[in-house]
Design goal:
Elements lengths: L1 H17 L3 E37 L7 H15 L5 H24 L2 E29 L5 E7 L10 E9 L4
Antiparallel strand pairs: 1-2, 1-4, 2-3
Helix pairs in contact: 2-3
Length: 175
């Protein structure tokens, strides 16, 4: 029962607020102010950025272990020429490993070649611009009130002190 009373009271309050008549009309007024409204815009312009890049092109075919083996033998023989006792053994092993590594590196360097290629990519340059977004316009109507309005660009604003017609909505009693 209490909920029904609350609903009835709420309905009465809302209907009183809605009974105010809303009216609309076109009124002639005098333009008293025109101010442009500016906005900042970022414009991106695409361009091509090209550069040269060096790439390794491998040769087709299998690589051989012969240069690494040969390098290891030559390095071992050279290492064996130096040192005495266990030092001679260490130098022989070190020479064999070093010679094998050098032979392997020489073999790998002959498995391809470097080539210069040109690569291009799209980049964007940015420029910041300010331009008119719209106009704030003040119009004085016959009763002396000032109506402010905004017109979005593109729009050709009327000159100040010219008469224009404006469309207004109002509630009776509030005009």
């Amino acid at each position: 029962m209490i909920n029904h009373i609350k609903i009835i009271i709420l309905s009465l309050i809302m209907s009183i607020g809605l009974t105010q008549t809303v009216s609309a009309e076109i009124i002639r007024g005098l333009v008293t102010m025109v101010h442009p409204v500016y906005a900042n815009y970022v414009e991106q312009t695409p361009y091509q950025h090209c550069y040269t890049k060096q790439v390794f092109i491998p040769r087709n075919g299998s690589s051989s272990a012969t240069p690494a083996i040969t390098g290891g033998i030559v390095g071992g023989v050279i290492g064996n020429q130096f040192g005495k006792g266990s030092g001679k053994t260490i130098l022989t092993v070190a020479g064999a490993l070093l010679g094998s590594s050098i032979g392997s590196d020489l073999n790998n360097s002959s498995n391809g070649y470097n080539k210069n290629i040109q690569q291009c990519e799209t980049r964007y340059s940015e420029s910041f611009n300010t331009r008119i977004r719209g106009y704030n316009i003040a119009v004085t109507i016959p009763n002396g009130r000032i109506i402010n309005t905004y017109k979005k660009a593109p729009y050709n604003p009327p000159p100040v002190h010219s008469n224009i017609d404006i469309f207004i909505n109002y509630r009776l009693g509030n005009y």
